[in-house]
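pasting for ref. prot 1 ->
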Amino acid sequence: MVGMSMTQRTLYLLLSLALLFSETLLAARIKDNTVININRFANRPSFQGHEFTLNALLSLLPNSKRQMNPNRKGISYFEIVSIGSSHLGWMNVTQSQKATELNHEGRQLLAVVFQFGAGHSAQASLNGSTKNAFHSEYLCGQVNRLHFCQVGEKVTALLHYFDFSGQKQGHLNVTSHSDSHPFYWSDSIYIQ
């Protein structure tokens, strides 16, 4: 910082601090599908302190889990698993469900999507508004023993959270692109 003016030093310090804190907002750092670092301070989305749980996820997965193979390259399963609202909390979604059972109201509206396998660009749209996931959680292990990843483990699945707060109902469509065939995955549900 020798030869820098006071203004340049201040800007350099502010930029350095911004970069430091932006790194801590990530839930994890991944390299070659292996967890390098976990941020224990990343906030999990919740309603009145209630989070979407792994037990809830495991109860929603199909009985025949043969299609979810961690050795297969690319996505092998992609489903909406829960809709959450500040009015109702988390409401789990079954595989064949076409619409939510109750009306979601309130100021917050979130959707949780489970993706087993590697993919890119998970997006969701509701009433013409398209969004990327605002929070993703990395899961490791076999299908019947999924857990939140630890450093050094290979990622096998993800939970993507989408925020459509301000909206109350509509047709939700989620998509992702797989690393192998089939390359395009999608799911949808009508939110009442």
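and prot 2 ->
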Amino acid sequence: MTTTISIPTEEYKRAKAFARERDLSIEELFVALLGQLKSKDDAIWDQHDADVVPYTYEELQARIDEGEAQFERGEYKSHEQLMSELQEEYSWLK
């Protein structure tokens, strides 16, 4: 099976240089990295599954009620404020 992924140009260039230093093709590098993820008994993917429980109806309703009360008290951020904070926090994402 063949899969196509999209990687930003600068990250791809760094990965390619890293692979070249180790005498690997970029494909071999990705396979090796993915193999390392899998070799940890899939703990990365299943790490929190045992701790996760669904919210009860009452918990969901309480969250909605609190959100509505915060809104009525004026405790919210505008779209511009939220976007500004996100752009600052995740400035490395373009």
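The radius of gyration is 22 Å.
The helical segments are 9-21, 26-38, 43-46, 57-72, 79-89.
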